[in-house]
Amino acid sequence: MGLTGVGKSTFIDRAVGRPDVGVGHNLMSYTKEMRPILYPHSDGIHNIVLVDTPSFDDTFMTDTQILRQIAHWLNEIYQKNIKLSGVLYLHRISDHMMSGTSLRTLNLCKGLCGEENFKDVILVTTVWDEVTEEVGSARERELFSDFWGPMVKLGSSMHRFEGNMESAWKIINSITVLPPAQRRPLQIQREMVDKRIPLHKTTAARATLEAPTYRKSGFKGIFKWLKNGTGRSPNPTPSYSKHLPRRSPSSLSMSTVTTSSYSGSIGTGISSPSDSGTCSTEGYRGNLVWVIPALQAALGTVELVRIPHLKDVISPSLSIALSIEVNLHG
């Protein structure tokens, strides 16, 4: 697991001896779905399955969509009585800081696994060829002291991936492979399969909502407001708004977004708030019918997502809209 460009696919390619096929050499996410690779273990007796996962900062999919895809695959194998031996979480040592996206992905990984499985989580730093030993070691110590320390204290271990087959197998062999009957399911498998908890209420999903990016928006309060069905705005109208000119609905205009899968005027069918500034639950449902396809279309437009910072706005907005939709139908 890890962000786009941390070297997940490269790690697997090195482990199984496949040549470099240009993975991760551009801005686009390479892995679009769960990708299991069966390979003989170096002990010559067993086989192992290495599973490449889509990145949580995927070029075209939101974190919610990625989480749903990973959760579906994990639950499917768990229902077949297949359990993982370990989870590798990869992080670029070349990153000079822990970004909000990196922190959110780490929290998602922790939410997926659960503290009781941290002993089976290997924290791997990559791209050591892009930093000096001095800089890399300093960042390694910072990762431990500020972010990874609690996981290490609960059994996780830290390793460096040097970009070759020997290094990859050293990391793989650090995982304790227990007999199938002694392996523990991941937290999200126990929640969704054993306890039948819906995805949006799992610990991993809450980790997405509680990340710094989303806390700032305050939309957790909107969920409570929608669940209560009060139809009242969670925040009073700011005092300065009375000085702004009011516009009638007919004076509003919105652009048209057209793709192969969606075509329509975004403005058509949008429910506007009442004069009191509130919007009913049905009004939100009506709005989401148009808002979600528009954001998905924007996220699927290469020219848009390549604009600096624009994807950082579109992707969280789509995640918020999808989360609100889930809560409206929950």
Cα radius of gyration in angstroms = 22 Å
Order of helices and strands: HEEHEHEHEHHHHHEEHHH
What spatial order of strands do you see in the largest sheet?
3-4-5
Bin the strand percentage. Answer: 5-15%
Assembly state here?
Answer: single chain
Largest sheet: 3 strands, parallel
On the 0 to 100 scale, the average pLDDT is 76
| Outline | globular
**Which consecutive residue ranges, at least 5 long each, have pLDDT under 50?**
21-30, 212-276
Number of helices: 12
Number of strands: 7
Q: Roughly what percent helix? A: 40-55%
Structural class: mainly alpha
Considering the chains and any ligands shown, give keywords for the structure:
330 residues, two-stranded antiparallel sheet, 42% helix, single chain, three-stranded parallel beta sheet, mainly alpha
Tell me what you see in this structure.
The chain is mainly α and 330 residues long. 42% of the residues lie in helices and 10% in strands. The protein has twelve helices and seven strands. The strands form three sheets. Strands 3-4-5 form a three-stranded parallel sheet, covered by helices on one side. The protein has a two-stranded antiparallel sheet with strand order 1-2. Strands 6-7 form a two-stranded antiparallel ribbon. A hairpin with a 4-residue loop joins β6 and β7. α3 runs antiparallel to α7 and α10 packs antiparallel against α12. The two termini are 29 Å apart. The relative contact order is 0.11.
